Amino acid sequence: MNILLLNGPNLNLLGDREPEIYGATTLADIEHALARRAAEQGAELTAFQTNHEGDAIERIHAARGAMDAIIINPAAWTHTSVALLDALNAFGGPVVEVHLSNVHQREAFRHHSYVSKRADGVIAGLGAFGYAAALDFIIQHLGEARFP
Ligand code: DQA
User: Which atom of ligand 1 is nearest to the CA of 101?
Assistant: First the structure.
């Protein structure tokens, strides 16, 4: 089972950027912990972060037929990008959307997500644990006729 972890803009600054909102854990910490957690369950995790929307879209295209599922934190593109939604609509497998913060407690512009139109599940406000929850859920439920 191959799972893509895709993180969007500014998430390379995790641990340093607004730690009161996003926590002290770095993206490298999250990626390593998640890869280990995937391997322990017989899955393989590929991690990719970009600050460039076109690169994220190309990575999703490359995942078609190559990856079984996508865990995505689209960061600010969550609230702005129809292009990202369209790319995810062209991907056949399960998609889980993760946000470190509880976006619904924050500014009104963070309450709408284009990506949620496509995501099979959405996790928000659980901090870095949200990625682990998404991973475990995908591993346990992938392959079921109905997802989730
Ligand atoms: C975020 C929430 C977004 O609104 C914000 O633009 C981010 C991070 C989160 O993980 O909580 O960059 O996706």
Answer: 11
